[in-house]
Amino acid sequence: MLEVRSLSLNYGQSQILFDLSLDAAVGEITAVMGNNGVGKTSLLKAVGGRHPFARGTLRADGRALNRPTAFTAARAGIAYVPQGREIFPMMSVLENLETGFACLPQSDHAIPDSVFELFPVLQEMRARRGGDLSGGQQQQLAIARALITRPKVLLLDEPTEGIQPNVIQQIGNALETLRKAGTMAIVLVEQNADFAFRLADRIYVMERGRIKRGVAKSAYSKAELLEDLSL
Question: Beta-carbon neighbour count of residue 194 at 10 Å?
């Protein structure tokens, strides 16, 4: 579903990503891991159209995307859940979800029941302002808003950061449900090694803007992962 080939990205005169390549398949969770500052978020921003990449190719569902904007990436089926969530604090939960309609045709302007089945708390709090939710509830809202766009590729940047353990479990369960549905590729950037290793089908470890290792989890142990992360 997602193919990244020889992707390089700069911030001004500083090169952040160096000829980076990875694949993410439908019905799988692909974890991208590494220590702070190695370029994980920059990779997601490039794929999600938040920052133009300098060189390389990007394909989603077989379609080539040439330095997409956030809108064109969303129209192509790429949904990005950023670190920090970026919900609208003064808008209600329902209004936040409806912002996902922006890249959809009018005929698809409806919230699927499956969104509330994944995150029942959002159904209960439809009228509450986004800024009044807990951190864990805001994270669930951010993921649900991305799902409104009917994505083919779901990008998640640090979804467990600052989240209480019971909500981390709920988010993990939701991702497993989405994987089983087999309709999208999920790319998970995560510092929580336990969470990522449990969920991942394939793992990429980044180091200084490059892929240090890319391997199926079935051929990789958690001890090797921790060694690669120098933990």
Answer: 11
List, in sequence order, every residue forming a beta bridge with 10; answer none if it has no partner: 15
81 close to 143: Cβ distance less than 8 angstroms: yes
Angle, helices 135-148 vs 165-181, to 10°: value is 20
Query: 89-113: per-residue pLDDT in tens?
Result: 999 999 999 999 988 888 889 899 9
Band of pLDDT at residue 165, cut at 50, 70 and 90? very high
Structural domains for the chain? 2-85+152-228 (3.40.50.300)
Predicted TM-score (pTM) of this structure: 0.92
Q: What is the CA radius of gyration of the chain?
A: 17
Residues 6+ apart with CB under 8 A from 91: 99, 129, 130
Question: At residue 77, what is the residue type?
Answer: G
Over 80: is that where the pLDDT of 21 sits?
yes
CA angle 33, 37, 42 (to 5 degrees): 75
Tell me the C-alpha distance between 75 and 98, whole Å. Answer: 16
Helix/strand/coil percent split, the chain, to 5: 40, 25, 35
18 has which bridge partners? none
Sequence-distant (6+) residues with CB within 8 A of 201 are: 25, 28, 29, 30, 179, 216, 217
Instruction: Give pLDDT tens digits for 145-158.
Output: 999 999 999 999 99
| pLDDT band (50, 70, 90) for residue 167 | very high
